[in-house]
Amino acid sequence: MQTKRTPKGNRDLLRKFMDGYSIILVTLVMIVASMLLQGLLKDSWSFLTWNNIINILRNNSITGVIALGMAFVIITGNIDLSAGAQMVAVSAMSITVINWLAERMAGASPAMASLIPTILGVLTAFACSIALSVLTGIIVTKGRVPSFIVTMGMQLIYRSVLVYALNGGGVTTKVPGYLALSSTSIPLGFGELPLQILYFFIMVAVYWYISKYTSIGRRIYAVGSNEKATRLSGIKTDRIKIMAYALLGVAIAVAGVMESSRMGSINSTSSGTNYELNAIAMAVIGGVAMEGGRGRIVNTMFGAFIFGMISNILTLLGLPTKLVNAVKGAIIILAVLIQRKDKDR
What we know:
Elements: H1 7-18, H2 22-42, H3 50-75, H4 83-104, H5 110-142, H6 147-165, E1 170-172, H7 176-183, E2 185-188, E3 191-194, H8 195-213, H9 215-225, H10 227-232, H11 237-263, E4 265-267, H12 275-285, H13 297-316, H14 321-344
Antiparallel strand pairs: 1-4, 2-3
């Protein structure tokens, strides 16, 4: 028997669809309007070229990867302001290990002298990043200290130690295998797809699966929605929060490898600056609620695209670069306001 949908049911369905998608729809309308404005005023449709789209994806893939991990932490009701500095720290350790191994394998075959340091360097990045993120999670949960304070302190520690250890400079590497991780592109019939962008999409798929089909993903949402009720149901909420930070640690490691292998270097003062703030902005634009409990990983991917497109379109329209961040800030505030309206309905 076919049931007839009532007007109230239609409104509820529309409201459910808009929840978490409204800021994306609003921002996309703004972007489409900007594209049309560019085409009409500049008589140019350069935004729609393959090279421009690839540049947007490439330039935002690293912070986009961090945003995916940041989304899990925000959903638990926490935050991490040390992600950018941590990325630089693990990248520096990774390059140091790579260079050290490359020197000691100078007499080996070129293939082995490139492959083994690359593999161990990447593993170093993952091990160090996960360990640092777990440590942050433990301090937040066991110390009962607000994550804002803890991660702000960790950011200062990472930067200060790096600047001291590297004398305000950086580290470089010329190991071909490591450099090829982000400089290689996959040829397509109509252009090339950089591996850096492929890594981003792989991370989206993996983290979407974790959020949708695993118990840890469901528990992360439960902790963010109602931590007390989740604890009373027998779930160890502190462990779930630490796991969320560990997932962010994995994302930071991937981002660190992408950044350092693309540049062939990492700098203690300039690298990773404001990456954590951009990642938080991408997550918020994607509909992740700052109070926790709500947000979709796929939407964070769209948030990363939108964040990158905003800068690109404003530049193409001729807006002074010093004012681009002002527009971004306004959009972030708009995203939070729309989230609050969606929650209050």
